[in-house]
Each structure stands twice: as C-alpha cells, then as structure tokens.
Amino acid sequence: MNIGIDKIGFFTPHLYLDMKDLAQARNEDPNKYLIGIGQSKMAVIPPTQDVISMAANAADQILTAEDKEKIDMILFATESGVDNSKSGAVYLQRLLGFKNQVRVVEMKQACYAATAAIHFAHGHIAMNPDSKVLVIGADNARYGLKTKGEVTQGGGAAAMLISRNPRILSIQDDATFWAEDVMDFWRPLGHDEALVDGKYSTNVYLDFFKHVFDEYQAKTGFDISKFDALCFHLPYTKEGYKALKIAIEGADPTVAANLTREFENVRKYSNQIGNLYTGSLYLGFLSLLENANDLKAGMRIGLYSYGSGAQGEFYSGLLRPGFEKQIKHQAFQNVLDARQRLTVEEYEKVYNSRIKDEKTRMLDIESDPAKYVFAGVKDYQRQYLRK
Ligand code: COA
User: Fold this and answer.
1) What is the pLDDT of residue 349?
2) Is 231 a catalytic site residue?
3) Among 148, 232, 276, 313, residue to substitute to test ligand 1 (most atoms within 8 Å of Cβ)
4) What dihedral do alpha carbons 44, 49, 50, 53 form, nearest 10°?
5) I need a labelling partner for 82 at 20 to 30 A (CA). Which of 53, 180, 264, 374 fits?
6) What is the mean pLDDT of residues 22-35?
7) What CA–CA distance (Å, rounded) separates 145 from 148?
8) What does UniProt list as catalytic (predicted)?
9) Other Cβ atoms closer than 10 A to 189
10) How far is the CA of 59 from the centre of ligand 1 (A)?
11) Does the predicted model carry a pTM greater than 0.70?
12) Is the CB–ligand 1 distance for residue 245 below 6 Å?
C-alpha cells in the first residue's frame, strides 16, 4: 500500500530579525552568521504565539472538512511543549474542530519526534487504510540572548496529513536508525532555554549521519546516485551542508553537482527562519518542493532526521505522480517577504515578554495578524483564540 505525505503546510510568525543587525549588535563579522552559520534571517516568536497556536495556523492551511472527518489520530511532536501533562494535540481538537473520536498525543525526542510520528502514522494507516493522521512538528527554538546559540534560534510549525495514496510523497519502508545516550543538547525541567554543546552536537549529528547512511546503503543496495535530492534536519543550514558533503564524497561529479544544487532549494526557507527543531526537516522538504524547477514524479528524496540526546534516522520517499499540483511555486517565500523586520532592541523586548509560569495575564492579541493566537493565561489555563 502506498502511504505517505498527502499535504504539507507551514506557519511561522510575522516578525523576523536580520542576521546582519544581530551581528552588528553582538560585535561579530556578518559573514560569520551569513556564511559560517548559513543564516540570513531569524523568525522571532511573539508572546501571542506558541507551539499550539503555530500548529493550529499551520494545520488550518491544509485541512478540509473531509480531512477532519477522516483524521482519527493527531500526533503532536515538540520539544517546547507548554504543559507537562496535557498534550498539544488535544488543544487542536477543539481549536480546529476535530471530531471527538480522535486519538491525541504529544511526542518528544528533541528534533526527531515528527519523524517517529510519521512512521507511527504509517503503521496506523497500514492497519486502518481509510483513516488519516495529522502529524505536527512545532517548536520555539530559544537559546538565550547573547549566547553562542542565539544566532540559531527560530520557530514555527509544520503540519502534514499522512494518508493512503498520498498526493505528494510515498514513504518507503527503508529506514535505518541509530540511538545513543549523549549530552549534546538538552533542556532541564524548569529551564526556558536549551543548553547546548554546539560543536559536540555538530559532530554527533554528522557521526549519526554516517552511521545511518552507511547502513542504509548496505541494507538497500542503493548508493548516492539513486537520490535526486537530500533533505536534512537544519538547526542552522551550514550543518546540513556539512552532512551533504559527507554524502557526496567520492560521488560522480554530475550526481554531486545535482544534489548540491537541490540542497540550495532545501535550505532556502530555513535560511530565512532559523531552527524549528521538530519541523526543520519538513520545512526543508517543503522548501525543495516550492523552489526546485526540475523535480519529477518517481524521484527519490532522502531524509535525514536528527534529534539531540540523540537519535538519527535516514529514510526515503518517492515523489508521487501529480505532486506538482499540490505545490504552489515559491508560495511560502511571499509569506516570508511580508514579515516585519525588528530592530535588535525590539527583538530583545519580544524575547523577554513571553508568559512564563504566571497565574493570570492576558496579552495584546491585536498586534498579531495570525488567525490563531495564544491570548494569555487565566488561573494557569492557557487561552487560545481563533480571530
Ligand atoms: N566568515 C565566514 N565564516 C566564518 C567567519 C567569517 N567572518 N567567522 C567564522 N566563520 C565560520 C567558522 O569557521 C565556522 O565554520 P565551520 O563550522 O565550518 O568550522 C562557523 O562560522 C561558526 O563559527 P564558530 O566560531 O564555530 O561559531 P560559534 O563558536 O559561535 O558556534 C554554533 C556556532 C553553531 C556551534 C553555535 O551557534 C551553537 O551551538 N548553536 C546551536 C546548535 C544546535 O542547535 N545544536 C543542536 C541541534 S542539532
């Protein structure tokens, strides 16, 4: 049975910071951020957006009433969840108007969990061919002002509808994975910002890529020439570029050149948004779909998922006949171009204004143009609104 991604939607808030402005404020050479890290802009998450509202805004763009009737499971992957008990998925049940006969659950393994969710959805649909599953990867990547990780912040949500006979990508049963208990990046309970050993994390990410890609080639008999594009988890786009270089080492020059060209399409949106944690790999896939001019049905796309702590996985998907009808060329670029640029001072103010562990405070939602917003807390209960 063909099972995979039938629809994909994405949301990031309306504010951004230009990396040249941040470099100037932090006394760094702009080229360190633009070239060395590979980021030109960074999404800034206003206090009126969190993983739930961003997920609602992403899912709302792709779901029809018929989809909602068929969806019997919502898998919400995040590592910046807003409650230690209640899942992000159950908020969506009401906000987006799903039926009550739906399973709702939140999943966590750093930036990896959305990939696990896709495979769990795959298994569920194999047993229940008529059902559809909504998979969300939503996060707010925060490292702290004036830290080394500051330049690799960002946020947003990817929403994917997983179904039988998908219209975009057919997921292949070829995954290889590797897990190891390491401390490269983590967020202790009570901490609002992640702790990271960035250089070590980059090395683990690349080591895990070698493990899973070597095993993938041994398992399937496919070498690099079988791929038409490779998508990577992109905490910052230079990291994916480093993995790409490993993948194409020793490859036929034409194959290497094609994959390098497609990687520029893969990283185009991430370069302007920053890290997304769970949604990052799938933003790269969307970016490829919307920006590449030469993709064809049947082409094989490789996907490398990585979640610190750590879990790596490599798998592939085949583009489905007619996939191009589901995609609007560069559509999301228009959304990114319409965002409002903040000064560093404004960004720092926004950064410090989020609600944290407060009993009651309502927010000014008028300044946020998004359809779904986080309006504040009343007696520790989070308030979400559809405007
Ligand atoms: N022009 C071009 N490149 C420059 C430069 C300049 N003027 N100045 C520095 N660079 C390059 C460096 O050579 C380096 O490249 P390399 O990685 O290919 O060696 C890169 O820019 C980064 O410089 P570096 O000095 O290593 O930066 P840093 O100490 O500030 O750390 C990170 C950068 C990415 C490690 C740090 O931002 C971080 O920890 N981020 C979080 C990463 C993360 O999220 N990991 C976990 C999720 S998987």
Assistant:
1) 98
2) no
3) 148
4) -130
5) 180
6) 98
7) 9
8) 79, 111, 233
9) 5
10) 33
11) yes
12) no
